[in-house]
Amino acid sequence: MPKGDSGGVIHNPEKYQTLPLGIVLRRAPGVTRWAKWSWKAIGVLPGAGDGDWRILREDADQTDFHAATVTLELHGAETDAYLHGLNAQVPCIYVVMRECDGPHPFDVVLATASPYEAQDYSDSGEEIVEKVAMPAGLERWVQDFVDVHHVEEVFKKRRRDKKDVTLREDGIGDARIKQVADVYRSPSAARKERLQ
User: Fold this and answer.
1) Which end of the chain is more exposed for a tag (fewer CB within 10 A), N or C?
2) What is the average per-residue pLDDT within 48-70?
3) How many CB atoms lie within 10 A of CB 111?
4) What is the C-alpha separation between 118 and 130, in angstroms, rounded?
5) In this predicted structure, what is the pLDDT of residue 1?
6) Which candidate, 131, 117, 110, places its Cα nearest to that of 79?
7) Is this prediction's pTM over 0.90?
8) pLDDT confidence of 101, banded at 50, 70, 90?
9) Sequence-distant (≥ 6) Cβ neighbours of residue 175 within 8 angstroms
């Protein structure tokens, strides 16, 4: 495999940045008798070390866990998506999780600043996607990346074909209008009219 090639996906290291991001999940009592616990992503920890479901805070009935640390990746080709997310009323990081069997209820798959990528995972129906408000420092980091790498696409108006609109084809049109060469009439009816 050539240097700088990661499995067929070519990326430019000058237009690529990463940051370790800790994911904080909150466990609270379930609101129905069928679900013992309710889980929600409530925060992110930029620059965090390993999480591995470390307890951060415990209340009487709620527990916050540093569930995992994933790598937040920014790609220069995705700046439109990041810009869309930054212009939202509340800029968010999207946490993608999968339910799993084991000692912990979820496997944190990734975190992304792209609402488009988050929508793709939501559409699959196999993952759980949660929005978490970006801390101010993380929002500034993403904005700085967009400022450096975003290139606004110039709108190009599509040119129409030069076609003579005064040309007329007989037989094409409204079925209610009688025409000699009407495509909606049977050939025998057209012959009868000509003979009369």
Assistant:
1) C
2) 89
3) 26
4) 9
5) 37
6) 117
7) no
8) confident
9) 182, 184
Q: Considering only CA atoms, which of 142, 145, 81, 76 is closest in space to residue 115?
A: 81
60, 76, 57: which is closest to 12 by C-alpha? 76
Q: Considering only CA atoms, which of 12, 156, 150 is closest in space to residue 80?
A: 150
- DSSP label at 196? -
Rounded-to-integer distance, Cα 107 and Cα 101, Å: 9
Residue for token pair 């084991």: 102
**3-class DSSP assignment, residue 167:** coil
Closest CA to 93 of 101, 85, 104, 83: 85
Structure tokens, 90: 């509340």
Q: For the residues 111-121, what does the mean pLDDT come to?
A: 93
pLDDT band at 186 (very low <50, low <70, confident <90, very high): low
Give the span between the Cα atoms of 132 and 142, in whole angstroms: 15
